[in-house]
Amino acid sequence: MNKIIVAIDGYSSCGKSTIAKQLAQYAGYTYVDTGAMYRAVALAVMRGLVQLPSLAGLDQIAVGFRNNHVTLNGEDVEAEIRTLEVGNMASRVSPIAEVRHFLVAQQQQMGRNKGIVMDGRDIGTVVFPDAELKLFLTASPEVRARRRYDELVAKGENPVYEDVLRDVNDRDYRDTHRAESPLKQAEDAIVVDNSNLTREEQMQHIYRLFDRCAERLKTAARKD
Fold it and tell me: Is the dihedral of CA 41, 42, 48, 51 positive or negative?
């Protein structure tokens, strides 16, 4: 059976990356975390490698993956890009058209042979509008803030829940109101609200969606 492209979009702290990784493993596909790519650019800005607002230096950085960790100019920066500060900067650089064009071109190249699971904000609408399976993940802001809060605590940080909730709402607004490739549900995307689902429940649901899509395409190919 020919491989497909799975596009996963949705709000912050919905577990997109975890879900995409597990689905890629289940399907035997390649996983690409596009959010990590924007975080890497944000880190480059914070390090002074890319200048704002001119974006001088953008074409001189290299964002890639090694062993499922994102790299910046060959350096493994997986841990550094997961901080709240880098996340906030990423939500500010990601709306910039030049940054998006720079990374979207790389993302489309990664999917040229299909067999890929990619998550982000505009995968099903901009990067791969013809993806065979599109999922749109959502959960209430309060649930997502609690998840993010727990993640930060587990990393040894001391967040304030109200600050995390405010950050979640602010990021939602920026993501959905930016001029360039705003976050929105693709018309043919399947919505998965995981507010009240356990991790196992949501993964079983998503596995079924993938299997049904794969079977439907297999049946269509036989008819052709």
Answer: positive
3 state SS for 12-42: CCCCHHHHHHHHHHHHCCEEEEHHHHHHHHH
Q: What is the pLDDT of residues 193-205, one digit of tens each?
A: 999 999 999 999 9
Query: Rounded to whole angstroms, how far apart are CA atoms 221 and 42?
Result: 43
H-helix or E-strand spanning residue 213: helix 199-223
- DSSP-derived secondary structure letter, 224: -
Quickly count helices (H) and strands (E) in the chain: 7, 8
Q: And the tokens for 145?
A: 């803030």
* Length of the chain counted residue by residue: 224
pTM listed for this prediction: 0.87
